Amino acid sequence: MTIRNLIHAFEPKSVAVIGVSGRQGSVGRIVLDNIVNGGFEGDIWPVNPKYAELDGRRCYASINDIPGIPDLAIIMTPAETVPGLIGELGEKGTRAAVVITAGLTRENGLRQAMLDVAKPYLLRIVGPNTIGFMLPPRKLNASFAHMDAARGDIALLSQSGAIVTSLIDWAGANGVGFSQIVSLGDMADVDVADCLDMLAGDPGSRAIVMYLESVPNPRKFMSAARAAARVKPVIAIKPGRHAEAAKAAATHTGALSGADRVVDAALRRAGILRVNDLAELFDATETIARFSPLERARVGIVTNGGGAGVLAVDRLMDVGGELAELSAATMAVLDAALPANWSHANPVDIIGDAPPARYRAAVEAVAADPGVDVLLVMNCPTGVVSSSEAAATVASLAREGRIGGKPVLTCWLGEQTAREGRRLLQAAGIPGYETPAAAAVAVSYLTDWSRVRKTLERVPSGTGEEIAVDRAAALAVFRQVAAENRRMLTEPEAKAVARAYGIPVPETVVARSPDAVEQAAAHLLKASQTVAVKLLSKTVTHKSDVGGVVLDIVTAEAAGEAARAIEGRVPAADIEGFAVQPMIRRKQAQELILGLSQDAIFGPVLLFGAGGVAVEVMDDTAIALPPLDDVLAGDLIDRTRVGRLLAGFRDRKPVDRAGICGALKGLSQLVVDFPCVVAADINPLLADSDGVIALDARIEIDPQAVERAAPNPVLAIRPYPAGWACDAAVGGRTYHLRPIRPADAALYPGFLARTSGEDLRRRFFDPDNAYSDALLPRLTQIDYAREMAFVVLDKEEGALCGIARLSADPDHEAADIALIVRSDLQGHGLGRAMLDRLIDYARADGLKRLEGRFPAGNAKMRGLCEAAGFRRVGEPVEAGLVRVSLAVA
Asked: Which positions carry the signal peptide feature in this UniProt record (predicted)?
């Protein structure tokens, strides 16, 4: 598991501080002072041979001199000394270290030397080049930050030390506390994914905030992020939004899928809320620090300035918010309490001369409305009434930042006049924002997590059972292209592959000469009014750019002349022949583009949007990561402007949305099945109420990768492994074994009702938390990469009968296993069938070893493992537990 030994860093009982100094202002001095002054209650062991003691505290000459085994070591010594110190710590028994020292790079070899000496001990390293580590609940400030952080339930992960100190400073002034603060530095070992895995199961961290500069291991990151986002909000800022896009271009998709668009798609698919700048990160942190996410947020606005209310509504609509519709009863209460010239609508404009009593009446009335979920209260300074008195009134109504149980957000406009009012509101637990727009966006932080979390429940299959595909036909085309050592498919070849993956294409006749073009045109004109003649070339990608396309040809003779004209415009060496096609006439069809490209970090990405020759100019596209299902394909469509046109307008009927989704799923399945596919364009894909049809297709492959096995190993998200489903006859009954799905959470109550407490204790060492509401999403929504779980279902009833699970370590060499069989079904061989399935899967997945641990008194599990070939190994990690291992490679 990626969190192996990280518990020693996140819950240390002792700390060795290596490289301490007596010199004021030095890193070694600041870190030691921060640890001591922060009140850490465990053992603190300073290490530096230059000192016998520092400020009355004994200082040790070496690691070997420390009287105990440090859970966590903080290292601040010169770079060249770090690998040796890591080795000494590992030998001592320490299993986690924070390396503040910079200068351990790939170029000088010190980074790898440090990792090499740590590996035999599984000693986990945070850093190097970090400002340190802060655990406010444990009173540990092992950093050289300028101030301590208050205790709270927000976890902060940052690849920038400057962002860490800035957030700590801001949080101190705004009453926001933290559960963990990890400055990740260069992430030589412990990376953001490891920390996400750790924090996903941390009950003390209600939400996670991240500053990301890079994603070194995308599949690991996506897996960890998805696991964390299933159970708590995760907010990230990722700079570099306008980095130069890929210039590639064998395909339009390569030019349109810039790196930041892919990052945005990846974070969306991971269930992460993305913000764009530090101001938004501060606002988002404050919002989620105070309130839990909401499924729906109908906003009631109270303001003493109509303009401020309009600004808030505009921004609320921009971010997909919802303005509450006030009930007749609420309107009546407001009519009785407010002047006749109030706005008589939401936003409730109580007029610029509103005294505190008017604020009270309006806020209480809006808060009591059953159609309001969130209150936004604003104040514009005037010379008539006091902004601070208005704030005091609103604050007096609040309990833990809520009025009537509903979250309250505020915007006290101005600076000098608003300062005292903001302070009063903050003291009441009410977050404040500097502008109406910022306050409106803050509402979206409460709802967006609930929205994006729904995408995590989608587990598209890697077998393409939802669409009709002909893998053999596509493979035959790819093999022919590879045999000729080509990368680009010709148009007829590309269309043949598209057809094999369920994307409709027009009939295409390949002609090698102008005379043959005439014959083909004569054939096609029997069923079509006009035809098109296109250049067939293995070297020219964009045919229209060289005059290689002639449309609307009405006679066979004209088709032959068109081919001869193309011959006059294109060098003979670039001409393989011509493609003759019927012209597709669909007056009300919309031109779309479907595309596929390779991102340097996240691998294959899919594109959808408005198509045609001006696709780059229109730039109306959206990006998604494969694999897709109907819901994810529909979401991709809906994130474009053209997506709204597809629903129909005026005299245009809605287009065949299912046909578009089918084409997107086909392209998605193509890249799942064939790692050799580098890029693709389906442009234009015509879509109307009668269906879809691809008029042009362009596909690029890596000829060296044609025979690589599916599913594509570079997919950032591993598809649902439907191929591992099977039936098994055990004890006279038939069971269905398959990989777990998120929806299986609904089967657990029935399973638990028929499973004894003793069996739960044998499986879970803390049975009270087994299968809790918080844990179920993590158990049933897995990544199928580092984790795999099989459920066993009664073939007839569909009831859950057992669960088998494995979780691989970061190197994907070993995996921990766990099994549980329903109590009334034990003793019939079901457990052995489950264990055999895990062993088969582990072997196929390239794992080398399976490991298990269970209470020494669990004779059933011991007998099952021994029968399957597991052998007891080593001493138990915990008292009373047995460890077993099986080589599967």
From this structure: none
